[in-house]
Amino acid sequence: MINIPKGTKDMLPLESYKWHYVENAAREVAKKFGFKEIRTPMFEHTELFLRGVGETTDIVTKEMYTFEDKGGRSITLKPEGTAGVARAYIENALDQVVLPMKTYYLSSIFRYERPQSGRLREHHQFGAELYGSDDAMADAEVILLAKTFLNEVGLKSIELNINSIGCPECRKKYHAALKEYIGSNIDKMCGQCQARFEKNPLRILDCKEEKCQAVVKEAPSILDYLCDDCRAHFDALKKNLETLGIEYRVNPMIVRGLDYYTRTVFEFVSTDIGAQGTVCGGGRYNNLVEEVGGKPTPAVGFGLGLERLLLVLENTNSLMAKEDETDVYIAPMGEDAKFEGIKLAKTLRAAGYICEVDLMNRGFKAQFKYANKILAKKVIVIGDDELKEGIYTVKDMASSEQVSVKKEDILSVLR
């Protein structure tokens, strides 16, 4: 027996309707906002993530699936979606097509980490990205898209947390203040935070270790160190959210786990799955395109894990998806009826009906039992008598009403 790799999960046929539900909702909501789909490769050159995501991030230091291909090139399975979109934006000169570029993706994401509730080593994300606008209205637009999607799939009890982590100039001053505050307490923190202390102290705020949280609990707020431009941008974001009627909470502890973020960072949080409460996270990354070889380009977006979202929806009984139903099940009885049945199935499918015909040579009762399992709305029985008389027996499975229909009238009766 060859088992599934640790940290992965099969999407089974009886559960696929749930995935179709959230994926279709993502596509429809994105379409309403004018976002078009982009698909980037499942793997990229490793350098893209080293430069874009950041060499001090958990993703790069611990979680990437990196290997050498047969040509000796270092390749990495996609650990997040944004860097690949930035590469595609540059390589395909999308800035010459139309700005702002508004795009979304539904993609597998690969991270070598301890599997946890709603987060697997291969999981799936819905992400949206907007390139070309530095206006806080673009940030609000992306946040509204995320909120609209979450509401659309049935998630109502969510809280929006926002923060600004400023620009590189703001962070220089804040890093100095944060390092001074932590000071002699650094030896009380985990090894990872000790390593971050010199290279990227801001990331210490994102550590989930209790002993580290205790040290930074009263740390100075980055909001007190924003430059005039970053402060004006954050104030404009709040005004835009208020204009849209979107409630929010300013949370100075949000920094996100990727180095490319600048200014706005945000999270939508649900308390319904315990400690793993963030169902969507994003922000602005004005320097990313330049860092991976392009021209300076402002950008903002979010990523949202679909496994985690489905977990929250199921835990809160909010999943409004319905199992796939079959319009018509054809139950042939006898050898000649089988040929008639498969021919009728072809006709009904061409007319747009979801249709199945018996392929297992089941008996009469077993066929009706199967029709119930696949949620068939109607069953068409074809037996020797029906063949002789040129009719079909049509049974409505909800009302149990049964009628005889001439073969040539079957489509009009079904309509």
Radius of gyration: 27 Å
* Principal-axes shape call: elongated
Low-confidence stretches: none
Q: How many individual β-strands?
A: 16
> Looking across the biggest beta sheet, what order are the strands in?
1-5-6-11-10-9-7-8
Q: What class, by secondary structure content?
A: alpha+beta
Number of helices: 15
Give the biggest beta sheet. 8 strands, mixed
Estimated helix fraction? 25-40%
Overall mean pLDDT stands at 91
Quote the distance from N terminus to C terminus: 48 Å
Strand proportion, as a percent range, falls in 15-25%
Would you mind describing this structure in some detail?
There is one protein chain. This protein has 415 residues and is α+β, with helices and mostly antiparallel strands. The protein has 15 helices and 16 strands. Strand 12, helix 12 and strand 13 form a beta-alpha-beta unit. The longest helix has 17 residues. The model has no long low-confidence stretch (mean pLDDT 91).
